[in-house]
Task: inverse folding
């Protein structure tokens, strides 16, 4: 059962600390030398805004495709320095099918993010979140605006001024150890330094939970926090 969702090493190499979890991946090898891996499962809450697609009037000029499935985010530790944006590969959040994709991202503070429009009509990208206020205005496919450097830990909620239904969250963290879960809440985080760490579990803009873990070098720690959503929101 467990082998169905542990992280494949190919994903780990390609993505560094950004962890992709794919059902059916082969069993992962031992953790990187001197580090630990934390794998487990957390709740995923239904996304409230998914059905709130505005009526843009006849005739339909475009087809709104379903948003990404809901997911949660998990990160381990805090206090890592802000990255040098000039030395970090940009994260990518597309506007495609008249949705932001991915709908949930986690980046380490200092990471630049690009917002390519892959649709045939205008989109815009803006955020009023305290962690990053910006407004890229309207732009078309091929008119990709400059990257936005997300340099302050916190949640950045993204909106499109053209399409009210479009929503995305980017969680900016001060740690290199993080993951977005799959739709079932499964995650795997590699490269964790030995020691005691706090673990943050983001379920929604209103609900982030914390746990404590202690890991040793070479250890694969398995956790099950699937009942965590029952705790009161804070
Ligand atoms: Cu849009």
Result:
């Amino acid at each position: 059962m467990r082998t169905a969702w542990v992280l494949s090493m190919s994903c780990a190499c390609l993505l560094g600390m950004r962890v992709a979890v794919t059902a059916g991946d082969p069993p992962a090898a031992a953790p990187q030398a001197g580090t630990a891996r934390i794998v487990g499962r957390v709740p995923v809450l239904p996304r409230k805004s998914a059905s709130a697609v505005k009526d843009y009037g006849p005739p339909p000029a475009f087809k709104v495709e379903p948003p990404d499935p809901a997911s949660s985010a998990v990160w381990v530790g805090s206090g890592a320095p802000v990255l040098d944006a000039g030395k970090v590969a940009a994260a990518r959040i597309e506007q495609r099918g008249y949705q932001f994709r991915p709908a949930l991202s986690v980046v380490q503070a200092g990471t630049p993010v690009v917002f390519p429009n892959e649709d045939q009509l205008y989109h815009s990208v803006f955020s009023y979140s305290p962690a990053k206020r910006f407004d890229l205005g309207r732009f078309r496919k091929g008119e990709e605006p400059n990257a936005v450097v997300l340099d302050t830990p916190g949640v950045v909620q993204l909106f499109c001024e053209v399409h009210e239904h479009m929503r995305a969250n980017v969680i900016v963290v001060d740690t290199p150890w993080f993951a977005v879960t799959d739709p079932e809440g499964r995650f795997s985080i590699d490269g964790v330094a030995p020691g005691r760490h706090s673990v943050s579990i983001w379920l929604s803009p209103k609900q982030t939970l914390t746990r404590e873990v202690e890991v040793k070098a070479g250890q694969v720690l398995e956790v099950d926090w699937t009942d965590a959503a029952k705790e009161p929101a804070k």
About this structure: Confidence is low (pLDDT under 50) at residues 1-24. The domain at 2-230 is CATH 2.60.40.420 (Immunoglobulin-like).
